[in-house]
Design a protein that fits this description.
0% strand, transmembrane helix, 156 residues, transmembrane, membrane, mainly alpha, elongated
């Protein structure tokens, strides 16, 4: 199965519909790890940038450091939501309903359910955005693997 590129596929980034794909457990795991690494990298980048901004504005730097630390330390807890999100994304993607709007909605509800467990409302705020990031990375991983496979009846 060859996944078409964004120019030839109107469902590439639709809010509800998407190409029906069936990601493997390995692909879900890679997407979760990539999402966690991206979140950690973004947090480190924001903190580093905050130290550079501190010479100009200490209040802006303080706010940026806070955001950076939230991103850095969210990696310790968001894996719980990403595991639950993998089930939601898988169920939606095999039915052709893996759009970004449904991913955000799923991230919001998973964040709301996990709010009492984690003890902060940040799960509701970060959940939708991290779910879309996980969806985008999952699509990239699945698309890369399916495009690399030879078509039926041809050799590699």
């Amino acid at each position: 199965m060859r996944v078409p590129d964004a120019q030839h596929n109107p469902l590439w980034w639709h809010p509800v519909k998407a190409l029906a794909i069936r990601p493997t457990l390995r692909q879900h795991g890679l997407a979760i790890l990539a999402t966690l690494a991206t979140t950690l990298g973004a947090g480190i980048s924001v903190v580093t940038l905050a130290f550079m901004v501190e010479a100009v504005s200490t209040s802006a730097a303080g706010a940026m450091i806070l955001v950076g630390y939230v991103l850095i330390f969210s990696v310790a807890f968001t894996w719980i939501g990403h595991l639950a999100g993998a089930f939601v994304l898988h169920a939606a993607l095999i039915r052709g309903l893996g759009g970004w709007g449904l991913a955000m909605l799923g991230g919001f509800f998973i964040g709301a359910v996990l709010r009492p467990v984690v003890g902060t409302g940040l799960t509701v705020g970060l959940g939708p955005f991290l779910a879309v990031l996980q969806l985008a990375l999952l699509r990239a991983i699945v698309g890369r693997n399916t495009q690399a496979l030879p078509r039926r009846g041809t050799s590699a």
